[in-house]
Amino acid sequence: MIQLSHVVKEFDGKRKVRALDGVSLRIAKGEMVSLVGPSGSGKSTLLNLIGTLDKPTSGEISIDGATLSGLADDDLTRVRRDKIGFIFQFFNLLPSLSCMENVSMPLHLRGWSRRQTRERARELLDLVGLGQRLDHLPDELSGGERQRVAIARALSVYPPIILADEPTGNLDTATGADILDLVRDLHQRLNATILMVTHDRAIAESCHRTITLRDGRIVGDLSRNAAS
Amino acid sequence: MMLLRLITWPYVRKHLLRTLLTTAGIVLGVAVFVGMHTANQSVLHAFNRTVYQIAGATQLQVTAGEAGFPEEILEKVQAHPGVAVAVPVIEAAVQTGIEGQGNLLILGVDMTGDRSLRDYDLENAGDTIIEDPLVFLAQPDSLIVSEQFSRRTGLALNRKLTMRTMQGPRQFTIRGVMKSAGMASAFGGNLAIMDVYAAQLVFGRGRKFDRIDLTVRAGASVDGVRRGLQRALGEGLQVDPPGSRGKQFEAMLQIYSMSGNVTSIFALFIGLFLIYNTFSIAVTQRRSEIGILRALGATRGQIKRLFLLESGITGLLGSLAGLALGVIIARGMAAYIGGLIGNVYGVAQRAEEVAADPRLLASALGLGLLTSLIAGWLPARNAAQVDPVRALQKGRVQVISAGENRARRLTAAVMLALAVVCVFYGHQQAVFYTGYLLSILAVLLMTPALGNWLTQALRPALKRIRPVEGALAADSLLQAPRRTSGAVAALALSIALVIGLGGIARSSFESITTWAETALNPDFFITGSESITQRSFCFSDTLGPEIAAVPGVEEVQAVRTVRIIHQGTPVMLVATDVERLARRVRLKVIEGRRQEMYAGAARGEGVVISDNFALIHRVHLGDVLRVPSPGGMLSLRVLGVVQDYSDTQGTILLDRRLFLRHWRDDTINAFRVYLRPGAARDAVRQDLLNRFGGQMRFYVLTNQELKDYIRKLTEQWFGLTYVQIAVAVLVAILGIVNALTVSISDRRRELGVLRAVGGLRNQIRHTIWIEALTIGVLGLTIGFALGAVHLYYILEVAKRDLSGTRLDYRYPFQIAATLLPVVLGAALISAIGPAESAVRGSLVEALEYE
Q1: What distance in Å separates residue A96's CA from the closest CA in chain B?
Q2: What ipTM did this prediction achieve?
Q3: pTM summary value
Q4: Cβ contacts (< 8 Å) between B397 and chain A: which residues?
Q5: How far is the C-alpha of B547 from the C-alpha of B713, rounded, in Å?
Q6: Domain check: are B252 and B213 in the same one?
Q7: From the candidates A90, A99, A135, which should be mutated to test the interface with B, based on the most B CB atoms within 10 A?
Q8: Torsion over CA: B28, B29, B30, B34 (sign)
Q9: Which residue in the set B399, B467, B756 is minimally distant from A86, CB to CB?
Q10: pLDDT mean over B321-327
C-alpha cells in the first residue's frame, strides 16, 4: 500500500517552484491507477517521489506501512529495488547492453548468480514477447520493443509496485495499445500495484482509478468498478 | 564566430574542468619542446656571447682544439701578409673557491698587442697599467677583473688574491677593474685577465698558446686571409671566425635537443589522444544540439568547421600556455644544462639569461595547433555526419562504438608487418624511423582490441574480487571499448615513454658502471684540477717519475687528454703509454683483436677508437682517420674498436710518443697510479700530498672517489631524463583523470539508470573505482609492451644518431614496478571525484540527462 500525507516538493532555482503542494493520497495493493493532468502539474514529480528517486520537501510517504522520510540514500535504493519497478517514457535502457543484459541488471545488482539472472531475464523477455531478441541491442529494436524490454526490466524482481511514466508516450497508437495490453495483463497475472502517468484519456479511463493533478494539487480522484 | 559564441562557449563553460584537462596534454607537449630547446639555445647563446664578448674585434682565430700549439706558430701567423694584428691567448676556467661564485674565466693575453683587439675599459687610476703595458708585463702577478666580479667578491683595486697554480699557491694583485660592459660582462662577469706568459706558468701550459686571435689588414678579405693562412699553417691547425666555436659546442648540446624532441613528440601525441577522446565524446553528447543546428539550416560543412574551430582554439590556447610554461621550464633547465656541460666537457659558459627564439616559439605554436587540428578532425567529421532526424529523437541514444573495427585491426597488422620488415632494412635512416613510427602506430591502433581482450581476461578476476561491481566495471569497458581506448592509448604512450627513458638510463648506468670497473682500475688518479673532466691545469711530465719514486707506488701511467676537432665535431684524444695501459685495462673489444690492436697502437702504427666514435663517424677497423695536429694532418689507421664511455663524443686512443712527436706537448692532465700489493693506501696518499701538494695544484682521487664522481656525473647527466620521466608520469595521470572525468560525465544517465534499478551508492562508487583501476591496468599492460618496443628503438636512436653509444637492452623492471602503484594509485584517486559526483548527483536529473 502507498500512502502520501501532505507531501510538498519545491525546486530551488532562480525562483522557487512548488511542484507538489500538500498532496495526500492512498493507493491500495493491487490497484491500477492512472495519474493525469496538464504538463507541469506535478505528475512525474509525484511518481519520482513514490519511486524514491527524489525526496519530498515536506510531508510523509510510506510504502507498505514503512515511512520513507529519514531513510538514507542506500535504504531508499533498497526499497526501490525490492518493491518498485520503473517504466520510463524514454525507456532508459543501457545502450551498450543487450536485451538480456538490460533485464538482468537489477538482478545482477542484487548479487544473483549469472545462471539465475539469465534464467529470470529469459523468462521475462518471453513474457513480454521478446524471447527471440535476447542478444539484440536497444538500438536494433523498434520503440515498442524497447518499451517491452523496459517493462521486463521493471518486472525483473516481480516488484509489488510498478511505476510507469507515460509508457506509451513515445510510441505510435497501435504499439501503445499493445504495451497497455501487456501492462494490464501483467497487472492481472502478478497482482502488482500500478501507478501510470499518462496524457491519454482512453488509457486513463481504462484504469481502476484516475487521479487528476493540477498545479501540484489533486483536483480529482475517480474510482471505477473495473477496468474497461 | 556566432556559432562559436552561442554554441561552443556555453558548453566549454559547463565543462570547464574537462576542457582544461584536455588542453593540458598540448600544454605539456609544447612546454617540453619549448623548454628543452630554449634551454639549449640559451646555453649556446651564453657560450656564443662569451665567445664574441672576449673575441672583441677578432676576425679569425687559430686553434688546434684544446691541445694548443707551440709559440712559434704566432710568428708564422704574424708574418702572413693579410694579417694586421695577431695576439696569443690562453683561456681557462678555474674554480674560484668563493661561495656562490662558481668558475672564473681567465684570459691570458699579451697586453702589448691585445688592446687593438679588445677594449679594456678600466674604471679608474688603474689605467696607467694599460697606458703602459710594460707595467702589466713587468708585474706577472697582475690581474684585471670585471667590476661585477670585484663587487661580488669584494676584490677591489690593489687587493691580493691567492690562486693555486701549477707552481703552487701564488699571490696575484688586482691592478685593474673593467667597467661592466662589453668584454667585462662576458661569462656573467666572472672574467679575469692576466698576462699570457704568466698564464702559461699558472696553468702549466709550457711554451704553448691555446689560441691566436687576429684581425686582417684593411681591405683584405677575411675569407681570403683565412684560406691563405690555413694553407700556410697546414690542416693540423684550424683557422676560423670566432663564431665557429659555437657550432662545435652545438654538437655537444645535440643530445639534449634530440631527447627533448622525443619527449615532446610523445607528449603531443598523448595530447592528440586526449583531445580526440574528449571531442569524440563531446560529439555524441552534443548530438541533439547538432541535430537542432542542422534542422535550423546549418550545413555539414558548418558543423565540421565549428568542431574544427573548437579543436583549433583548444590547441591555440594550450600552445600559448605551453609557450609560457616552456620559458619557465627553460629558466631552470638552462642553468642545469649549462652546469652539466661545464662539468662534463669543461666548456666555459654561464647560461643566466633565457633567450626564447621567436622562430622556435612560432614552430611550437604551429606544432600544438596542428596536433589539435589532427585530433579534432575525425570527431568533427563524425559531427558533420550526424543524422538530424535520429539526433532529435529523444531516447535514441547513439552508441559511441558498437564494436571493434575490423579495418583498424587489419591496418594495425599491416603496419606491424611493415615495421618488422623495416627492422631488417633499418640501416637506412628513413626506413628505420618509418619502422619506429609504424610500430608505435600499430600498437595504438590495436589499443581498443587489446583493451577488450585484456578486459575479458581480467573479468573473472574482477568478478571474484567484487562479484557485482567487478563484473559491472569489466562489462562497461567491454561494451564501449572506444570510450576509454583514447585514454588507454594516452596512458600507454606515457608509460612507454617512461619505460624508454628509464630503460636508457638503466642501460647507461649499468654499462657505465661495468666500464668504470674495468677502465678505471688504478688506485689513485692525480690531477691538477678539482675534477677529472677539467683540463685547464696541466702537469709537467717530469712529475711522473717523481710520483713513481714514492714508496708504495708500483706504476704510474701519464695521460694527456685533449679535445680536438675531427670533421667539425669535438672528440677526445687520449694519449698514454698504450702498452702499459693494455696490461692493466681490458676493455670490451668490438672490432679487431686485443693484442694486435694495442701492440700496433703502442708502436705508433695507428689508433684504437671508442665504439661511440666509430658509430658517430661511421668508421671501422682498418679505416684511416685524418686527425689534425699542430704538426699537420695525420693519417692514422684504426687498429681496433673498444667499448669506452670516457666521452660522449667519442675517443681516439694513441700512444703518447706519437702524440709528443706531432703535438709537441709534453704536459699531462692526469696520472693513473697503481700501488704495490699490500701498500697502505691512506699513507701513500698522504705521502703524495705532503711531497707535491705544497708545490703545485695536486689532487689525489682514490679509485672510489673517482667512481663516485663518475656516478654523480652520470646521475647529473640523466637528471633531465628524470625530469622527462616526471613529465611523462604527469601526462599519464592527466590521461587517467581526463578519461574518467569525460567517461563519467558521458555516462551520467547510464549511472542514473543503474541507481534507479537498484544500484546502491557503494556499488556505483566501487564500480567506477574498479573501472578506473582496470583502465590503469590496461594502460600499464599495453604501455609496458609498447615501452619494450620503444626502448629497442630509442637505444637504436642513441646508437646511430645521438651519441653512438651501444647500450645493452635492459628492461627497467624497477621503474615498471614503481609505475604500478603510481599509476594505479593515480587511477584510484582520479576516480574518487567522478565517482562521488555520480553517486551524489540528483537521480532525477541524471535520468533526464542527455
Answers
A1: 5
A2: 0.79
A3: 0.75
A4: 95, 138-139
A5: 28
A6: no
A7: A90
A8: positive
A9: B756
A10: 90
